[in-house]
Each structure stands twice: as C-alpha cells, then as structure tokens.
Amino acid sequence: MMNISKDISFELQGDIALIKLNRASKRNALNDDLVSSIRSIFENLPGQAKVAVIHGEGEHFCAGLDLSEIKERDAPEGMLHSRSWHTALERVQYGPVPVIAALHGAVVGGGLELASACHIRVADETAFFALPEGTRGIFVGGGGSVRIPKLIGVARMTDMMMTGRVYQAADAERVGLSQYVVQAGTALEKSMELAHRIASNAPLTNYALIHALPRIAEQASDHGFLTEALMVSITQSAPEAKKRVRDFLAGKAAKVKAS
Length: 259
Hints:
The chain has helices spanning 32-43, 75-93, 110-117, 144-152, 154-163, 169-175, 187-199, 203-211, 213-218, 221-236, 239-249; strands spanning 8-13, 16-21, 51-56, 99-103, 106-108, 120-124, 128-130, 167-168, 180-182. By secondary structure, the chain is of the alpha/beta class. It folds into two domains: 8-199, Alpha-Beta Complex (2-enoyl-CoA Hydratase, Chain A, domain 1), CATH 3.90.226; 203-249, Lyase 2-enoyl-coa Hydratase, Chain  A, domain 2, CATH 1.10.12.
C-alpha cells in the first residue's frame, strides 16, 4: 500500500504510472516526505504498470534539496539521511519498470540526482542543470557522485560543483545529462510518447535493460560477456520473444527504418 505525501501525486494511465512532484511553491524542492513517498510508490507499483514517468508541477522539475532541513543536522544524522536517499533512488533505478524523467526549468542538485536515477531523461528548452552544493559548502548526498559521473564523466561533474557551472538544455543533451531536447512545454508529451513505445516491448527485455545492462557495463569484460550470454538465453527463451521473432520472420512485424 502506497504511503505518499500531499506534495506528490500518483496516477495510472493505462500501463503508464504518472508521478508528479507537487511543491511548485518551493520549486519542487525535495524534503524527507517527498523522498519517502518516491520510495513507497516504486515499492508498491501496481502490477499493470509497465513504465513510469516522473515530472514536476509548475515552472520547474526540481530545484534540489530543501535546505531548511539540513541546517541543524549533525554528522551521524547527515549520513543516515543520505543513506535514506540512496535507498529511495535505488528503488527508482532498479525498480520493476523503466522510468522516464520529463524535465523543465530547474534540474538542480537533488533534482538532478533524482533525474540521474531515471533511465531516460527528456528535457525541454527551458531546462537547466546545476550542482550548487560545492558553492554552498556541502556535497551531493542522493547518489549523485555515483550516477552523474557515469553520465558526463568525473571532470565535468567536478567543474559543475567547483564553479557552479549551469548547463542549458542543448549543452546538457550534448554532454549526456539528457537524451532528448524538445520544445518548451512538451517534455511530458514526449515522455508519454516514449513510455507507450517502451511499454510495447517484451517486459523481460525491459527488465534486463534496467537491471542487467548497467551491471554488465561495470563488470570486467570476461564477466560481462558471460552475463550477456546468460541474459540473451533467458530473454529469447520467453514465449513472447519466440512469438515476436516468428511474427518478424513471417513479415508481420515492422522493419527498422530511418527516422
């Protein structure tokens, strides 16, 4: 059973789980209740959900951590708080379904950490990306030091934190912070389009892509090759995969064409 804050909403649209951050007056800054709610949602997704889309109410996706929550926190409390974020965002990255982040406005600090836990990031032209923790005397605590360098490299993340550099949408896509840039106001529309396309994939293939592929990429080559061989044998043995191959060979499935 989901236990969620008033600052977040959940809606199931067919087989798409739509999750909205609802703290527009705070630029959707993340507090403990919101992070706990994200964890609860992904631990309790309905079985019919095949893809999830996260977006933000108002002018921004998420402006990061609500700094009012850390002003009196001591070292042990800070460590435990960070670990609670790790647990919640791990549920996003390694949950039951692929997750798309529809980004606009501020994608800053903890907002970028949340986006980096998603599998696909769609940014509209208003989106801007930053990690201001370095200029505020703190450090990322929601898994950003692990996930973000895998997207853009250690040097670029270091630059963002040391200098306060802000990436606008086009440059953010170029360096790897997002995979798509769309017109202002259309990130959610594009994300839903992609979600429906992904939902039509074989569920076992989607599961392998979000759980096996990132781990294969971190394994030594000989380990990765073995894991890949195991995954291909499992996915292609599924009845749905066999039917899809038969349909393709019989000319009943669309061939890949240039966009």
